[in-house]
Design goal:
By secondary structure, the chain is an alpha/beta fold. 30% of the residues lie in helices and 17% in strands. The longest helix has 21 residues. The protein is globular. 45% of the residues are buried. The structure holds 2-acetamido-2-deoxy-beta-D-glucopyranose (6 copies). The site of one 2-acetamido-2-deoxy-beta-D-glucopyranose has 5 residues, from loops. The site of one 2-acetamido-2-deoxy-beta-D-glucopyranose has 4 residues, from loops. Nucleoside permease that transports adenosine and guanosine.
């Protein structure tokens, strides 16, 4: 393809001439005038949720700032390398910011994302029964656990164990009855398996402070060194803590995944980003089977057994620093692996597990023509 090769030549010329100390704005303007640079078709797009998680600009030389409408006012630009191979956005925190920013990128005519891989890479709370401070979790399921009814636990019936129960149901523990569509997403586990070899032998960061806090737990994996593990992510705008809510949302994760999901990590954005991605996939703008959801653990979601009522929040657990470091330590080989093995392995996509397309969201958006809604019973 003539166009593409001359485009690559042009871009590599730019890259070589400009080197690391590009001036940015003017160069992007010049590229904009050259119709051949747009739409940009990156091999990998990375999502951070807030500024500290953006560990990518220097390692990947993401110095081309591209302004598109609809991103967070705090992070209004897509940042790309000069080859247009790797791009990054910061979505802004929690569900609303994530949904809006990801939609803006996916709908932007400046980008062709039909064969792009997406790495959602942020920090998270961790269930001490599945991981520890600094651990790196790769998800199959993402569940919007707080999409539920709630009553303060001081006012629950005496035989209830929690103040959360699912919409359309009568009490905690009942299976889902009412569906909004964003409750649960399943990701391509074959893609997850395909990138695991790139994480072989990575040496995860750890700190004295994290080791000290971890020693308060008398069970594994909480008291073990950080590792890469498979674990599902719960999404909630509310930054919750404590064993009762941890168990509640673990139970809800099981309800939404027919007992196959294990609540391991907690974050404030993933289901929102994934909802935008399912919609864009339905429109043929991207491929939802090319999404990797990686979360690194910055704090335990609950206290050690003997300190249940004096739960100390994330700041004094010592996990924040290794969690940020491990975004790059684990994420960089994934991105580099995808690019290095692009032609023979990733370009054509990684075939997902059987039945996946149907489950990729709870409305089965990608396999049904008509949106089916189960209105269930409404407690009016
Ligand atoms: C790109 O944008 C970031 C913040 O959005 C800014 O810090 C940086 O200086 C910009 N880089 C260039 C090359 O303009
Ligand atoms: C959000 O995503 C998590 C997995 O990351 C999934 O378990 C959960 O069901 C999703 N929840 C909603 C409401 O989308
Ligand atoms: C609680 O007790 C009520 C009244 O006996 C019963 O209908 C309900 O099923 C019980 N709920 C739970 C969660 O045990
Ligand atoms: C890992 O943690 C150590 C100890 O806190 C820190 O000094 C170091 O800079 C970290 N390494 C990386 C690669 O982030
Ligand atoms: C979670 O579910 C288990 C098994 O049904 C139950 O024993 C436990 O009380 C539930 N936890 C909460 C906090 O509701
Ligand atoms: C759970 O099982 C129900 C009933 O068989 C099915 O409709 C639903 O798609 C399943 N959900 C998941 C996430 O597998």
């Amino acid at each position: 393809m003539w166009k593409k090769s001359s485009l690559l030549l042009l871009i590599s010329l730019f890259g070589t001439c400009l080197g690391r100390s590009v001036k940015g704005t003017n160069d992007v303007k010049r590229l904009r005038q050259d119709k051949r640079w747009f739409p940009i078709s990156p091999k990998v797009v990375i999502f951070s949720m807030y500024a500290d998680e953006n560990v990518w600009v220097e390692p990947f030389e993401l110095y081309a700032n591209i302004t598109i409408p609809g991103l967070s006012p705090l992070f209004p630009q897509v940042q790309c390398d000069w080859k247009g191979e790797i791009c990054h956005i910061t979505t802004g925190e929690a569900e609303i910011n994530a949904a809006c920013s990801v939609s803006a990128l996916l709908l932007s005519p400046d980008f062709d994302l039909t064969s792009t891989y997406f790495l959602i890479a942020g920090i998270a709370g961790v269930n001490p029964f599945t991981g520890t401070l600094g651990s790196v979790g790769l998800a199959r399921w993402a569940v919007q656990v707080a999409l539920a009814y709630e009553v303060d636990s001081r006012q629950i019936p005496s035989n209830w164990t929690t103040g959360y129960w699912l919409e359309g149901t009568e009490e905690p523990g009942q299976a889902p009855a009412e569906i909004y569509g964003s409750e649960v997403f399943e990701l391509n586990t074959n893609l997850r398996d395909a990138i695991m070899p790139y994480l072989d032998g990575v040496k995860l960061n750890d700190t004295e402070a994290a080791m000290t806090y971890r020693a308060n737990y008398d069970y594994a994996p909480a008291n073990q060194p950080p590792q890469v593990f498979f674990g599902d992510v719960a999404t909630s705008d509310v930054y919750f803590a404590g064993s009762l809510l941890g168990e509640t949302f673990g139970n809800i994760t099981k309800l939404w995944t027919n007992d196959t999901g294990v609540y391991a990590l907690t974050a404030q954005e993933d289901n929102a980003s994934l909802e935008a991605m399912v919609r864009a996939s339905k429109a043929g703008l991207m491929d939802i089977s090319r999404v990797i959801l990686m979360r690194t653990a910055s704090d335990f979601d609950r206290a050690p057994h003997n300190q249940e009522t004096v739960y100390s929040f994330e700041y004094n657990q010592g996990g924040y620093e290794p969690a940020l470091a491990n975004i790059l330590i684990a994420g960089q080989p994934i991105v580099e692996g995808i690019i290095e093995h692009w032609e023979h392995k990733f370009k054509k996509g990684v075939k997902p597990q059987d039945g996946w397309l149907y489950n990729s969201d709870v409305l089965h958006t990608l396999t049904t023509r008509k949106r089916k809604r189960n209105f269930g019973r409404f407690r009016g």
